[in-house]
Design brief:
With about 375 residues, the chain is mainly alpha-helical. It is about 60% helix and about 0% strand. It has helices at about 75-90, 90-110, 115-130, 135-145, 150-165, 170-180, 185-205, 220-225, 230-265, 270-285, 290-300, 305-315, 320-335, 340-350, 355-375; strands spanning about 45-50, 50. The protein is elongated, with a radius of gyration of 32 Å. The N and C termini lie far apart (about 75 Å).
């Protein structure tokens, strides 16, 4: 379908609505038909009484075909709805034909709804973009924007098509225009950052002077976009993105704190390392290595009872953890519970007979146990 072009990468934006069936990628990046994509590539369903038209039914249920679609006559609404359904299921060529039939039908029926015709051109452009036909995508997006200036989806799709054709200046202008309308479109932010580097390499320090004029989006358009009702899908997607961002922040903080703790242990700063590991545990309370690492610090600080508790926690998470058994044995030794220490050291050697330190400690603990028995001070086992 036209000249096949490689497409720019697409990342989730601030208004994700649905997963894409395919996602545009660079020459080094491809995604399968089930990967999440950018909501601005999805076909628009139009508005009915101020709300989006109902979702399409299953493959066997064709009731979605009769859903109202803006001001389109029923026979054209059916074509549009069928195109949306085909697009949703990755059948972009077939969807394109339906949108084309609907566009031709608008001319024949003398439909004067610029909004509906804009959406049809924009939806057909999405099909072209999915199939790598960037040239026809640009043409349809331009027609859509002539009908409805500063329409967000055609702008973003045209920007992506320009980028895939390496027409970076035009792509940059469209992406910057998108961000005037909606600063939350992450795909546009990512692309502006990427293209800026390319333009600097291509045009040098004066790269901005070679750009086409970036149009100023009227405040009324920006306000209208902000006032659009937010669908439940968008709310859900935003919540999911926020949760993912928070998880990433926690993971980054966890990694930094744990590394700081490890570095402090190497320097012999056990009190400070203890604080770092404790902070880590507020983020990941089920991380076994944190308990065994913190136990080292507690042993070095002669806080044997706390060290034993940390080893107990580690063994609840990993019942065969050699380090936890060995360090608990040292804690028992510090508490003068030599019988329990002996039992833990034997557990270590049963798990790994080659742990030389455990053999040596077992010899020491055995001597201490015998002496305590002779002195009548042996602790009873607490395991």
């Amino acid at each position: 379908m036209g000249n096949t072009q490689e497409k720019p990468p697409v990342s989730g934006g601030g208004g994700i609505t649905k997963p894409d069936r395919t996602t545009a990628g660079t020459a080094n990046t491809t995604r399968d038909r089930n990967s999440p994509g950018n909501p601005h590539l999805e076909p628009e369903k139009g508005l009915t009484n101020g709300t989006r038209s109902p979702e399409e039914g299953s493959a066997a249920d064709t009731s979605y075909l009769d859903a109202p679609a803006g001001a389109l006559p029923p026979h054209l609404a059916r074509l549009k709805n069928e195109g949306n359904h085909l697009f949703k299921h990755g059948q972009f060529g077939e969807a394109l034909l339906k949108y084309s039939q609907a566009i031709d039908g608008c001319a024949e029926a003398d439909v004067d709804s610029t909004e509906d015709l804009c959406i049809l051109y924009s939806n057909r452009a999405a099909c072209y973009l999915k199939d790598g036909n960037s040239t026809d995508c640009i043409e349809d997006c331009t027609k859509a924007l002539e009908l409805q200036p500063f329409s967000l989806k055609p702008l973003l799709r045209r920007a992506m098509a320009y980028e895939s054709l390496e027409r970076y200046r035009k792509a940059y202008v469209d992406y910057k225009t998108v961000l005037q309308i909606d600063t939350g479109v992450q795909a546009a932010h990512d692309s502006v950052h990427r293209i800026t580097k390319m333009l600097i390499e291509q045009d040098g320090p004066e790269w901005r002077e070679k750009l086409p004029v970036i149009p100023v989006v009227p405040l009324s358009v920006q306000q209208k976009h902000r006032e659009k009702p937010v669908s439940a899908e968008v709310v859900q997607a935003r919540a999911a993105k926020a949760a993912l961002d928070e998880a990433r922040r926690k993971e980054a903080r966890f990694t930094l704190l744990k590394q700081d703790g490890n570095d402090l242990v190497k320097k012999g700063l056990f009190e400070e390392a203890l604080v770092k590991y404790s902070e880590c545990l507020t983020i990941k309370p089920d991380e076994c290595s944190l308990y065994t690492n913190r136990a080292i610090c507690l042993l070095k600080l002669n806080r044997y009872a706390e060290a034993k508790q940390d080893c107990d926690s580690a063994l609840q998470l990993e019942p065969s953890n050699k380090k936890a058994f060995y360090r608990r044995a040292l804690a028992y030794k510090g508490l003068q519970d030599y019988l329990s220490a002996s039992g833990d050291l034997q557990e270590v050697l049963q798990l790994d007979p080659n742990v030389r330190e455990a053999e040596q400690e077992l010899e020491v603990v055995t001597r201490l146990l015998r002496q305590s028995l002779l002195d009548g001070t042996a602790h009873t086992a607490t395991m």
